[in-house]
């Protein structure tokens, strides 16, 4: 279980959110909604262990995040609003390096299979610079298929995806939830998930 307890988000002198608490259990998705600037990305970065909360605490499996950050980061996959791809490297190279940095054992064959599933078959050796924005988003999301993390934290993952890409991602999230995974995501678009989902609205 992922638990947020009285989190406070601050940017400069502005308080984005105050005493925010929630729980996400195995098999559940939490959709974080709100207008631009309401603190959605700040919250997700806190949950990913990248930004400190001004107050409050985050627990994973009943323990404080600060006590188990290394272990937690092996259990968690964060896909930020930025694509997290090196433009001069190929899609294959990007995913192999990403897996290595996460301590995940993979092979070019497995990466090729993941790229095929996200609709990038035949583009394994193509520089990321030569991809469209939608293709770049697909390449970044291929990490969901390669890194077997129980918790996914996804910041606007539907950005630049076409209808087929959005449906693919919904299906992948549903499979993850059915397998007992947890998902926290932000999106301005509607998601029709088969699994259990809850939502919170920032700035309300």
Automatic annotation (TrEMBL):
GO MF annotations in UniProt: ATP binding; ATP hydrolysis activity; transmembrane transporter activity
GO biological process, one term: cytochrome complex assembly
Keywords annotated in UniProt: ATP-binding, Cell membrane, Cytochrome c-type biogenesis, Membrane, Nucleotide-binding, Translocase, Transport
Transport found in the keyword field: yes
Cross-referenced PROSITE patterns: ABC_TRANSPORTER_1 (PS00211), ABC_TRANSPORTER_2 (PS50893)
Every ABC transporter domain range: 2-204
InterPro entries: AAA+_ATPase, ABC_transporter-like_ATP-bd, ABC_transporter-like_CS, ABC_transptr_haem_export_CcmA, P-loop_NTPase
SMART domains: AAA (SM00382)
NCBIfam families recorded: ccmA, PRK13538.1
Listed name of the protein: Heme ABC transporter ATP-binding protein CcmA
Gene source species: Orrella marina
Source lineage: Bacteria, Pseudomonadati, Pseudomonadota, Betaproteobacteria, Burkholderiales
